[in-house]
Specification:
Elements lengths: L6 H11 L13 H26 L9 H7 L13 H13 L6 H10 L6 E4 L23 E5 L25 H10 L5 E5 L2
Parallel strand pairs: 2-3
Antiparallel strand pairs: 1-2
């Protein structure tokens, strides 16, 4: 960051602020330089930590304060399992703060994509209605069919778990679908029924 001063800059500033006189002359009192150097290093460290704190206040840059953000936002999300990855926890903090919710198809597709299903699609069923129903047309059913829809995951997952970013016992190459089902079922409108089709 441009606003963080180095220890050398603080050291020069402290030397320039010393009062005049033989008691503050670095040549006569060599211990003074050691004191100034120690204080300058500490001031530089505090300056850097203050900048880190400013970055941590924004969920987009949060790293160290993820546990505090989780406490405030009632996280970790039970949908992510008992031991979510740190990156998933950080992403959950951002989502919880910025999430608005929606009943649009795109909202549910975004949830599926965030869980590693980039080719997800949604199929809606239609109830038979006079003037719209055609003999032999597919996807027509009972009156309750208008409240049913299917999330097609679209086959293979975008990213599986990988070495260095997984926890012990987690399977490589695939994301578990439990998180997807939990997130989708929690967000659907109360009057609808969703079926998740894993291709």
């Amino acid at each position: 960051m441009a606003g963080i001063r180095t220890a050398a800059q603080y050291h020069a500033q402290l030397r320039s602020l010393l009062p005049s006189g033989p008691a503050w002359d670095p040549e006569r009192v060599p211990e003074l330089e050691e004191v100034l150097e120690g204080v300058a290093q500490e001031l530089s460290r505090i300056d850097g930590r203050a900048a880190d704190l400013l970055n941590e206040m924004d969920p987009a840059g949060v790293s160290e304060l993820v546990p505090d953000w989780e406490r405030v936002m009632n996280l970790p999300d039970p949908c992510l399992g008992a031991t979510p990855l740190f990156d998933d926890r950080r992403l959950a903090v951002r989502r919880r703060l910025l999430a608005v919710g929606s009943q649009a198809i795109g909202y549910y597709l975004d949830i599926a994509k965030s869980q590693g299903y980039p080719n997800a699609t949604i199929s809606e069923l239609e109830a038979p209605r006079m003037g719209r129903a055609r003999f032999g047309a597919a996807h027509f059913g009972t009156w309750q069919a208008q409240f049913m829809w299917t999330l097609n995951t679209g086959g293979r997952l975008l990213l599986g778990r990988r070495f260095g970013a997984s926890y012990w016992g987690e399977r490589f190459g695939a994301n578990p679908g439990n998180a997807l089902e939990c997130l989708i079922r929690r967000q659907i409108p109360a009057h609808t029924v969703v079926h998740i089709n894993y291709d």
